[in-house]
Every structure is written in structure tokens, then in C-alpha cells.
Design brief:
This protein has 223 residues and is of the alpha/beta class. The chain is 52% helix and 13% strand. The protein folds into 2 domains: 2-79; 86-222, no CATH class. The chain has helices at residues 2-23, 30-79, 86-99, 125-130, 176-185, 192-195, 211-215, 219-222; strands at residues 114-118, 137-140, 144-145, 148-149, 155-160, 163-168, 203-207. It is elongated and about 100 Å long. It starts with a helix and ends with a helix.
Length: 223
């Protein structure tokens, strides 16, 4: 903000100096000359003050919005809910790790075959992947809390045997905006850059459900 004050102050001084110098070339009587100089100086003061007030108000509004956003993100984290934009952050992290891997820069979320794991909270999606024996490598996300498997807040990205494995957190399904971002990130592209031949990267979905849900009366119809 000091820079703004400096620029506005400098422009004000230059403007007033020009007014006082150039006004004398207009051939006005001394009384009219002073009225013109004072009027233009006051107008410059008002304009400078209004601009500084506007900048201060804009920065104050921005600061309040950031504080509010941060509070909302902390509250969401405490409740185990993914804050807005977390899917994009995780996807970028996963993409960066793929690009830095032995697959090369041609590897991306859209160019690799992908399996999307879906299911409600507590359906053991993370546990199933971790214990699958596929030697998965975590690209982005959070799997463990201490020594226990942690609930997935937004998404987890793994890589195994040339295939991308993505787990959508249970609560992500109730957030259409974030879930839509995840789907857009996984839109298939060409396999050419990843495996050296044309075609579209295949996509598959695995729905994971707790056993007790399958044993309930009428489970077939409800599913």
C-alpha cells in the first residue's frame, strides 16, 4: 500500500505544479487565476482521496474473503470434508509426479488407462487398494494416519503397472462441483504419448460397497 501512496502523492504534486505553472499562461486576471488554481487543486485532492479509499476498501474486502475462505477450509478439514479446489490440487500433484517419473513428460492423467473407485464412506476402498497386492505407488492424497488407514477426504491417486488408480472419497460424491472436477481431470486422451501407439486411454469404474449393505432386504432394488 505504501507504493500506492507514493504513486498517488507523486502524481498529485506533478498535477498541481502543472496547474500552477500553466494557469498563468491563460491570461486570466489574478483573482480568476487563483480561483482556477485552488479549484483544480481541490479537485485533485478529492480524486486522490477517493482513489486511496477505494484501494483500501478493496484490500480490506480481499483480506476478509481470504480469512473467511481459510476458516471454511479449516472447518471442512475438521469435519473430514474436502475444501473447494482440493481435487485440482491433488490432480496437479499426481500429474507432476507422473511427468517426473520414468514414463516421461508424455504421461498424464488423461493419457494413461485409469480405474475409478467409487463407494460410500466406510466401504474400505482405500484398504482394498492398499492390500490388493498390486504394488501401488501413491501419487497424491493421504492414506495413513499414524498406523491406521485414514478416511479419504477428497481423493487418492495411485499408479500401478501402467495404470492410474483413483479413489473418490465417500463425501466427494455429495459435492457435485468437486466430483465434476475429478471426472474432467480423468477425461481420456490419446494413448500415443504414453505407450507409443494411437487409441483412447480406457476408463473403468469399480463400485465398492460394505457387505452389510448387500445383505439388507431389498438391496438389489436399492442398488
Amino acid at each position: 500500500m505504501k507504493k500506492v501512496f507514493g504513486i498517488v502523492g507523486g502524481l498529485f504534486v506533478v498535477f498541481v505544479s502543472l496547474v500552477w505553472l500553466l494557469a498563468s499562461t491563460l491570461g486570466l486576471q489574478e483573482r480568476d487565476l487563483w480561483i482556477l488554481r485552488i479549484s483544480l487543486t481541490l479537485m485533485a485532492m478529492v480524486a486522490s482521496g477517493l482513489y486511496i479509499w477505494y484501494r483500501l476498501k478493496s484490500e480490506s474486502d480481499t483480506a476478509r474473503a481470504l480469512v473467511s475462505s481459510g476458516s471454511g477450509g479449516q472447518a471442512g478439514a475438521a469435519a473430514g470434508v474436502a475444501p473447494e479446489g482440493e481435487v485440482d490440487l491433488l490432480a496437479r500433484e499426481a500429474a507432476a509426479r507422473l511427468a517426473a517419473s520414468s514414463l516421461g513428460k508424455g504421461a498424464s492423467l488423461s493419457s494413461l488407462p485409469a480405474i475409478l473407485f467409487l463407494g460410500p464412506e466406510g466401504s474400505a476402498k482405500t484398504t482394498s487398494i492398499v492390500n490388493s497386492g498390486l504394488e501401488t505407488e501413491l501419487l497424491a492424497g493421504h492414506v495413513y494416519q499414524d498406523t491406521a488407514v485414514a478416511p479419504t477426504r477428497a481423493a487418492n491417486f495411485w499408479f500401478s503397472r501402467g495404470t492410474l488408480m483413483v479413489e473418490a472419497g465417500g463425501k466427494l460424491l455429495s459435492n457435485p462441483g468437486e466430483f465434476g472436477r475429478l471426472i474432467r481431470r480423468l477425461r481420456p486422451g490419446s494413448l500415443a504419448s504414453a505407450v507409443g501407439r494411437g487409441g483412447t486411454a480406457p476408463r473403468a469404474a469399480v463400485v465398492v460397497l460394505p457387505c452389510d449393505e448387500l445383505m439388507k432386504p431389498g438391496a438389489g432394488e436399492s442398488l
